[in-house]
Amino acid sequence: MKRQTAVLVSKLVNCTDRALEMHSEQKLDAAWQYLAAITRRGADELPKGESCKTIAGRFGVGHGSVHRMLKKLPRVNPKNWRGDALDSGTGFPRWRKVREAGSDWQQDLSEMNMDQITQHEAEQLAKKIGALMEAATPEAWRRAVEMLGVETQLEVANQDTRDFDTETAEHTDF
Predict the structure, then answer these.
(1) What is the tens place of the pLDDT at every residue in 14-40?
(2) In sequence order, which ranges of the chain are alpha helices (DSSP H)?
(3) Whole-angstrom distance, CA of residue 14 vs CA of residue 20
(4) Closest C-alpha among 26, 4, 5 to residue 15
(5) Which residues pair with 93 in a beta bridge?
(6) Which residue of 62, 65, 90, 122 is 20 to 30 Å from 160, comparing CA positions?
(7) 3-state DSSP assignment of residue 79
(8) Tens of pLDDT along 41-52?
(9) Cβ distance 86 to 93 under 8 Å?
């Protein structure tokens, strides 16, 4: 058995419940590396008998993720990636790196200043809130916003909160 085949088989075996379960990012990467191998890095269609759903089921990932992977595969050239972005077994870029390519937040958090980190956190929170808004009925959304407004008013009215804000405020007596 060739080394690359052994690497792919081990990725598939590790997605089963025979060992410590892989976390979702590892499963996604295993599916990505498998797709790259069976489609010759996106040059071919899926082999007969394979579909997004069968691959998703085999690796325990969403079929939408597999579909997105198939769309990105033909545009990925391993020569355009740094060594730390490549899978050591296959030499092909990891799914996370490909998925996040082009994102404004590719930097390591240690390289960001506090304003950039806060902006990133706010964007992530906005995505989550947006998803919750879409899933909720308009009435549930209205009530939730009303509850938050009341909670904020209670905090402002609370003497302990006002005292804390006064004590921790930066003094700018120039």
Answers:
(1) 666 666 677 889 889 999 999 999 999
(2) 3-14, 24-38, 52-59, 63-72, 95-100, 114-135, 138-157, 159-168
(3) 8
(4) 26
(5) 86
(6) 122
(7) helix
(8) 888 899 999 999
(9) yes
